Predict the structure.
Amino acid sequence: EPEVTQTPSHQVTQMGQEVILRCVPISNHLYFYWYRQILGQKVEFLVSFYNNEISEKSEIFDDQFSVERPDGSNFTLKIRSTKLEDSAMYFCASLWMSGNTIYFGEGSWLTVV
Amino acid sequence: GQQLNQSPQSMFIQEGEDVSMNCTSSSIFNTWLWYKQDPGEGPVLLIALYKAGELTSNGRLTAQFGITRKDSFLNISASIPSDVGIYFCAGQLEMEYGNKLVFGAGTILRVKS
């Protein structure tokens, strides 16, 4: 079964460093998402991306965050200058078309120290 | 914004017992989804409900989408140790730019064998 793949699975970074989380969505999907889950809390929406642009972003997704789909297969989330509170599991997700099911990757666990 | 209230927060039950959890919202959703999350992994879709009043089963799992489209329950019958995990409800809205998922806070399920 096709799946959303994410790398790295774990990353530890120093506060203030830039981090790039990578995702390969399911190949024929058109809509892409990043969600975040702080340890012990619920999954929160960060951003949605369609037609090579951001379609919606949450309050969490401030100027320190950016997304890119550089080559038609990867979908990346960049955190420019990480803060301690950015420590969380980051999930990429993709969707074929509106009304269908969103599929999640297994997550990238980011620890900022 | 849309919010889901999920209860109970956690359950500690005996193997073989039935489990019931539910979600309510003040918002109407097009689709209601139930996910299970194992530690360190991404949410995995268990059941999707598309029509108001729909009752759907998947093995030992049964879920219903409320008539008002504002609530849902999930039942697990005859629980087994591998049912342990966090169960999330999610309401899905179909937007112009794709779907938007709003998650409940999760129900932590522990099973005593």
